[in-house]
Amino acid sequence: MKIYTRTGDTGGTALFGGGRVGKDHPRVEAYGDVDELNASLGMARCIEVMPRIDEVLVPIQRDLFAIGALLATPDHDKMRDHLAKARIDEERIAELERAIDQCDQELEPLRSFIIPGGTPKAAALHVARTVCRRAERRVVHLAQEIELPALVITYLNRLSDLLFTLARVANLRAGAGEVTW
């Protein structure tokens, strides 16, 4: 199978389960941003390997594949299948929260804004956080047009908090200080 199909040469793309939309459709914007987030997490994992941080990111990347598939699927029954496959549920949200809480035990309490940066690993996690926030905004916009499971927005919101916390932990573990604003 060739990677190129030529079916998108006129600006359209196929959705899972049938149908076509323009590549600038809000659905495509949303799953495109989730895909970009997934790629940015892959890059963050490759920079300054930190096993305890990287082990948290791999399941998240799997979740994001399933969320992207859900966003690319207009069929509500298949949407639920993707959500179930991803295990995006209240327990998964609680797992993200526990990861944040575990990280917070290592960190000094926040007293001011943190300027993104520090080590390359932390900077990459900060970039991923901002991509996550954009993906969240796109999904919120899409949810105003089509019915989406609310847990997708909750997941992305919690994930951005986790990425911020992981960036702080990456700096701490590498011995880099934080620059405050």
UniProtKB/TrEMBL annotation:
GO biological process: cobalamin biosynthetic process
GO cellular component assignments: cytoplasm
Pathway: Cofactor biosynthesis; adenosylcobalamin biosynthesis; adenosylcobalamin from cob(II)yrinate a,c-diamide: step 2/7
Coiled coil ranges: 79-106
Reaction catalyzed: 2 cob(II)alamin + reduced [electron-transfer flavoprotein] + 2 ATP = 2 adenosylcob(III)alamin + 2 triphosphate + oxidized [electron-transfer flavoprotein] + 3 H(+); 2 cob(II)yrinate a,c diamide + reduced [electron-transfer flavoprotein] + 2 ATP = 2 adenosylcob(III)yrinate a,c-diamide + 2 triphosphate + oxidized [electron-transfer flavoprotein] + 3 H(+)
Subcellular location(s) of the protein: Cytoplasm
Keywords: ATP-binding, Cobalamin biosynthesis, Coiled coil, Cytoplasm, Nucleotide-binding, Transferase
Top-level taxon: Bacteria
Gene3D superfamilies: Cobalamin adenosyltransferase-like (1.20.1200.10)
Domain (Cobalamin adenosyltransferase-like): residue spans on this chain: 3-170
EC nos: 2.5.1.17
A GO term for molecular function: ATP binding
PANTHER family: CORRINOID ADENOSYLTRANSFERASE (PTHR12213), CORRINOID ADENOSYLTRANSFERASE MMAB (PTHR12213:SF0)
Family: Belongs to the Cob(I)alamin adenosyltransferase family.
Protein name, as recorded: Corrinoid adenosyltransferase
UniProt source species: Gemmatimonas aurantiaca
